[in-house]
Amino acid sequence: MSSSRSVRKLEVAAPVPADIDIANSVEPFHVSEIAKDLNLSPSHYDLYGKYKAKVLLSVLDELERNDDGYYVVVGGITPTPLGEGKSTTTVGLCQALGAYLDRKVVTCLRQPSQGPTFGIKGGAAGGGYSQVIPMDEFNLHLTGDIHAITAANNLLAAAIDTRIFHESTQSDKALFNRLCPPNKEGKRKFSDIMFRRLKKLGITKTQPEDLTPEEVTKFARLDIDPQSITWRRVMDVNDRFLRKITVGQGPEEKGMVRETGFDISVASEIMAVLALTTSLTDMRERLGKMVIGNSKAGDPITADDLGVGGALTVLMKDAINPTLMQTLEGTPVLVHAGPFANIAHGNSSIVADKIALKLVGTGGFVVTEAGFGADIGTEKFMNIKCRYSGLRPQCAVIVATIRALKMHGGGPAVVAGKPLDPAYLNENVPLVEAGCVNLARHIVNTKAYGVNVVVAVNKFSTDTEAEMNAVMHASMVAGAFNAVICTHHAHGGKGAVELGVAVQKACESVNQPLHYLYPLDISIKEKIEAIARSYGASGVEYSEQAEKQIEMYTRQGFSGLPICMAKTQYSFSHNAAEKGAPSGFMLPIRDVRASIGAGFIYPLVGTMSTMPGLPTRPCFYEIDLDTSTGKVVGLS
Amino acid sequence: MSSSRSVRKLEVAAPVPADIDIANSVEPFHVSEIAKDLNLSPSHYDLYGKYKAKVLLSVLDELERNDDGYYVVVGGITPTPLGEGKSTTTVGLCQALGAYLDRKVVTCLRQPSQGPTFGIKGGAAGGGYSQVIPMDEFNLHLTGDIHAITAANNLLAAAIDTRIFHESTQSDKALFNRLCPPNKEGKRKFSDIMFRRLKKLGITKTQPEDLTPEEVTKFARLDIDPQSITWRRVMDVNDRFLRKITVGQGPEEKGMVRETGFDISVASEIMAVLALTTSLTDMRERLGKMVIGNSKAGDPITADDLGVGGALTVLMKDAINPTLMQTLEGTPVLVHAGPFANIAHGNSSIVADKIALKLVGTGGFVVTEAGFGADIGTEKFMNIKCRYSGLRPQCAVIVATIRALKMHGGGPAVVAGKPLDPAYLNENVPLVEAGCVNLARHIVNTKAYGVNVVVAVNKFSTDTEAEMNAVMHASMVAGAFNAVICTHHAHGGKGAVELGVAVQKACESVNQPLHYLYPLDISIKEKIEAIARSYGASGVEYSEQAEKQIEMYTRQGFSGLPICMAKTQYSFSHNAAEKGAPSGFMLPIRDVRASIGAGFIYPLVGTMSTMPGLPTRPCFYEIDLDTSTGKVVGLS
User: Fold this and answer.
1) Which DSSP string corresponds to A410-453?
2) Which of A324, A622, B103, B608 has the largest count of CB atoms under 10 Å?
3) Assigned CATH topology for domain A146-307
4) In what helix (H) or strand (E) does residue A466 lie, and over which residues does it extend?
5) Are B33 and B1 in contact (CB under 8 A)?
6) Is residue A130 within 8 Å of A486, Cβ to Cβ?
7) Mean pLDDT of chain B
8) How many whole angstroms separate alpha carbon B434 and alpha carbon A355?
9) How many whole angstroms separate alpha carbon B346 and alpha carbon B115?
10) How far apart are the C-alpha atoms of A325 and A145, rounded to whole Å?
């Protein structure tokens, strides 16, 4: 357990400068130095410039026999719209473990969408003295994974409309002959991918000429029901005008118009596949079995039915390798995958976590963040991600702020872009105490998985000792293993040393197996109801559409999948305005959809926007390149 | 002039194996070896894996005082739909110069669009024993430049529709206040980019509060005429259903629907900007002055008016660095930019050529390919690309095949996917001789620029000596410097040694300055007419729409730009069926458009498709990943 060579300790300034100024004040180590500290040799990674490298998945095979390090997930209480610093705490904790506590540590983070970087939100690399650097490379392009997802997603979309078009203008026989053209010797043959469809149809013949006319029809005519298509196009840009569009209006498309739309790229099922896959072979299978809609007879149509599962895998072959970067204090970070936290599961990739656990080895730490509040992020981490990975966390951190707890205690609404009410700036212990019901429920829910829970109070300069003591007391009463104050935003790793020590003890003293919230072999409704109860709901109400979909997925054989709830993160309930720890409500399920390739069913609790917009004055007004230095300016 | 260390000579097999099998039979050198041969140190480039590196533009400053090598452009005669092997000849010539003639050489190629790779066409890395490797990396993603273009193009598109939307719902004052929000001290200020618009409007005030209400309106309200918008969205996928679409049909867009469409990404003006820019500063200016449409008053609206020129530059900052790869024989290749050859100028980037010329130095060679036939590709290379770069080629190669010459001599139609007529497989010297009128006109036109012309006859196995002699004779009569037979497809560089020697002599003995076909300071119509005459036209007919556009661009001050004709490559004329060397026809100009940021006006001679489609059985049916080895299979 020798000290990493690349770590640095920060000289911090007060007041804390702007994020970009802090990020630019540090000259990053060459990423090969970061890799060397993890005992990675140049054959284990591909460089992408000086500060990014893709760690090759083959490292996993090489380290197969190594023991895993400790596995820590960072979730949060129900947040305000301003965010409570979950990413920042994740980074700060790792800086503490690596640069101050002399532990091997890897931070596993999601790749942010590029869209919001130019919209309202700005970047997502942490903040203050707890950041991933270089910040511009983290927020823009990275190593091209999201671009690969966009390309793959849209190739599949093009294949769908084109196939319907070609089926509409050709006889079964002509279609079949085009799909299996004669080779130079005049002989027709099936391409490899066609055997997947033949197998699905129960046809065991291997020569095109042996198929009966009925088999030719079954094989060649997918007969996609345009109304049933759930596959949409994607773009990594905040383009609200693409939310709902009509395609096919060109004269050559002969009137085959269709209403559809674009989502932002990170909402693509392919992003969820990337996050949940465990190997190249597994990714090939998941991409091939993604369902794009149904045939008119009601059977699911997959990417492999369209002949494109292999091409999608080829487009994604480099994306499966996580990207190595570094924190401000030189500790290693693996950035990989960034699925939506509502319609998908909001966690970074399984492969990054697996590689990281082997790289840190016994006594080391992998800290991974779960998107949204713990009711969604940590729940999905446990029941979807850990279920698919087989990994077992020892400790869950819950990030809390005095600000958010006051809101849950009954404080005035917190609105982004508007000044905070004085209630949030002056001491008010009763308000904090009242709000701790929200924290307590997150602690109880999280502890039920069999992990030790550490509460991290992300301290703001206006927070008082009495307020913080109230939180720590409430945490311990609710069953937390420990609760500590952190100042990593202002002080870097040094501000999270106490958190690091608490996490270490929590990991070392865990003594239960991992309990999932629900088994997979119960019905879709039973699974939904188990999750709803963890929110405090007394029951679930299904719309007619939801009932229909549940019935369909059950009939299609998909009821054994885990559930990925699409619910607001701003309340335990479906109503964002209900703060604290609501209970006794009926959770309404508006619709139920599925990501079959990724491997989950997602019930919609309310309307989820999957394509953000740009405000009147987007962030991009400030962003430019200093062409004399080549540096990015104005990124926040 | 010492031998490069990384070159290898190929062992060739007969008959020539499949392209992918040849590509996979060679283990590429680590790209750092290729870089070292060019005297590039690791500080001069960023690695992107083991076989690709981005050469940093800053190399140009370092080598400023070095002399340039010889500059060779490869064009072709008017091709058949099967292509006559221009890329293959470009690569083969370089393999000959580097691996057999002991010359420093760099091949400069366009980055292919990813769309066609999965459609009909397959990859574009050359063929046979003259290829760029690794072939899959060349054809897919490369180093993300096209993805960066897609992101930048679509950010601008989103900014346009969103701005119109926000202008439609806000008063001038509210709009202005949102655009210049108060900072923490309550003071409003302009962001840097806003001073570009203020300057354009002739407003010299620097404080928002000093603007008069009229100035507030002029500044804040772009008043874009939706009918005038020429900026379309792009995607690097063959998605015909996006050619014509309606956007804005979501309820939140409040009925602000608009008809528009997607082009394939390489048709984006940003691709043309990348190809024609000469520095980061120049790229910033070109991106900012791209015109997306007009205000209702008829004034051009630019990316900088929308506040997004800086963000576009940030998205493109790495794309400006060319990608270093290698040929099968280990000679260096710079891959950079791939603008459409019809609506844009179809040549690889100026910066790659400039860097390459410095890297090879005196006595070395840079060979760059011009898309389409020489009537379009070489013409645009000279009059647009060389005009912006200030570079001067010494030699132009014209690639010819017996097959294409027979077609021009009156042979039956050549159709992709159908067997060749026997006329093309058996000796027919008179047919070849008759077809040489096409070659002769390309020679005369190209020679007029003041370069020496070398004809490269790309030999097929069915070509006879008498046929080839006829071509060589006709070439010399038409004024070629030399004409030689090449067999680089079958033999690699060894098959192009004679071509290499001829090119070297042509470069060494050039004795005229570069003559452009037209000066810039004549009218748009005079320029169009000069180009039309080079096609053999006796005059030009303008549609009403073309007249209107020419008048508008002239009024807006853009008449000094060079002209980029959007014409079929399958004939000198506008009619693809007219082979040989037609003359006396009137060239019809259907419409006239402009890429103001890239820097050219493009008249449309006929309809140009800017979004390809997928066939019934696309290439993707064969493409898959061998998940046990991680290798791509089925790419052709």
Assistant:
1) TPPPP-TTSPPPGGGTS--HHHHHHHHHHHHHHHHHHHTTT-EE
2) A324
3) Domain 2, N(10)-formyltetrahydrofolate synthetase (3.30.1510)
4) helix A465-478
5) no
6) no
7) 95
8) 67
9) 17
10) 15
Structure confidence at residue A2 (pLDDT): 42
- List the structure tokens of A192: 């490899």
User: B146-312 — its CATH code?
Assistant: 3.30.1510.10
Q: Which residue in B47, B154, B614 is closest to A158 by CB distance?
A: B614
Band (B244; pLDDT cuts 50, 70, 90): very high
Tens-digit pLDDT profile for residues A243-263: 999 999 999 999 999 999 999
Q: What is the dihedral of CA B546, B548, B550, B552, to 10 degrees?
A: -150
> Given this model, what pLDDT does residue A322 score?
98
Q: How many helices (H) and strands (E) does chain A have?
A: 22, 24
Q: Which of B49, B192, B623 sits opposite A311 (nearest CB)?
A: B623
In angstroms, rounded to a whole number, what is the distance separating the alpha carbons of residues B266 and B418? 29
pLDDT of A198 higher than 90: yes
Does B179 sit within 8 Å of A616, measured CB to CB? Answer: yes
B5 band by pLDDT with thresholds 50, 70 and 90: low
Closest CA to B458 of B196, B79, B23, B6: B79
Q: What is the mean pLDDT of residues B245-255?
A: 95
Q: For the domain made up of B19-143+318-508, give the CATH fold.
A: Rossmann fold (3.40.50)
Question: Residues B76-100: what's their mean pLDDT?
Answer: 96
pLDDT band at residue B249 using 50, 70 and 90 as cut-offs: very high
Separation in Å, CA B98 to CA B89, B129, B327: 14, 15, 10
pLDDT number for residue B242: 98
pLDDT at B446 over 80: yes
Provide the 10 A C-beta neighbour count for residue B86.
26
Amino acid letter, residue A109: L
Q: Which residue of B191, B239, B280 is in closest CB contact with A154?
A: B239
Q: Is the pLDDT of residue B123 over 70?
A: no
Alpha-carbon distances of B582 from B77, B364, B443, rounded to whole Å: 14, 38, 15
* pLDDT score for B21: 87
Residue B480 three-state SS: coil
Contact B239 A158 (CB under 8 A): yes
Give domain limits for chain A: 19-143+318-508, 146-307, 524-604
Position A158 pLDDT exceeds 70: yes
What pLDDT is recorded for position A341? 87
pLDDT at A271 over 50: yes
Query: Is it true that B146-312 and B524-604 share their CATH fold?
Result: no
Among A270, A596, A314, A574, which residue's Cα sits nearest to residue B630?
A: A314
Smallest CA–CA separation between A452 and chain B, in Å?
Answer: 38
How many contacts, defined by CB atoms under 8 Å, are there between A and B? 284
Residue B3 is predicted with a pLDDT of 46
Residue B417 has pLDDT above 70, yes or no: yes
CA distance B538 to B532: 8
Distances (CA, A) of A211 to A104, A189, A204, A216, B622: 60, 12, 10, 6, 21
Tell me if B632 and A235 make a contact (CB, 8 A cut-off).
no
Chain B, nearest residue to A617 by Cα: B179
Q: Which residue from B243, B620, B627 is facing A281, i.e. has the nearest CB?
A: B627
Average pLDDT, chain A: 95
Helices vs strands, H then E, count in chain B: 22, 24
A524-604 topology per CATH: Formyltetrahydrofolate synthetase; domain 3 (3.10.410)
The token duo for A314 is: 């080829």
Q: B193: distance to nearest CA of chain A, Å?
A: 7
Q: Is A151–B155 a contact, with Cβ atoms under 8 angstroms apart?
A: no
| CB within 8 Å: A235 and B49 | no
**Minimum CA–CA partner of B312 in chain A:** A624
